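Quick one:
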Amino acid sequence: MNTAGSLPGAMGLGFTKLSKGLAAVLVAGFVVAKALPFTVDYLALVPGKTIPFTWNLVTAGYFEHTFIGLIVSIAGVLYYGRLLEPVWGSKEFVKFIAFTSFFTTICTFVTSIFLYYVTGHENLLYTPTAGFHGVLAGFLVAVKQIFPDYEINVRQVIKLRAKWLPSFLVLIVLVASFFLDNPIVYVPFIVFGTYGSWIYLRFFQRRSEANFKGDASDEFAFATFFPEIVSPVVKPIAIVCGKLCCGKRAQNLDGQDPAYVLGGKPLPGSDPAEATRRRERGARALEERLSAASKSDEGVGGKSTGSSQIPLEPLGPEDSV
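Output:
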């Protein structure tokens, strides 16, 4: 597999301390699960036992009890930590992971209870569900936001732009759910991880370069996760779901109504064309600076500083992402 242009995170910078710490947490959970198998029922999400053991709503998102899941999760958190943490900073990186993981487990819990009352299948209540794959799905949404036009080629047969990765993953998981046993183990985490990460990035993430939250650009609207032919159907549904999760703020963004303004002046980032230009200029500037930082590291013996955030020079008004 190769890419049309390298993502900044692949340019030789060392793994961040935070991503290595998260990897260590995943390894520790796996070791505990193998040494003390009974802990799976208490650290994983088991909807029938969540009350009174409510802590599994938190622990399930960081608990891997299968070897394949552990390897994939470690590789994912190390790579995407190196890619995203320098862009956001450690604080926002942690907030993103925490929000996405908790949103995923809460929604999975509610979905399992609902499906149990509909179908009466007790396995929905007592099948342990856990893993970091909900957050990994969320990382793909972040890549869609920051580097939407990077193209991934698989042996020159499959060509897929980064902006379609989240949708492609969800589609594969939904199709696979018809052929594999216990889809409740992985499908809700992937689906809700994708949606939860979009909610955070769309409405709540604080942009360090400006005093506002979220990403109001048309290019990051929920409808962009679907083919254009179904956009007229998706947009009204997205507005309703957004209002349930985020209230009036969601209506303002996805409804494209006059609430895009505050005090009669447009909110920063609300103009789609300007938001696109800022994203393009910011991505180019970030890649150049990450490349320069990588060369600087090589010049001092190839050692990485391990810093969680690369010091960038202040961006001018025309370079803000």
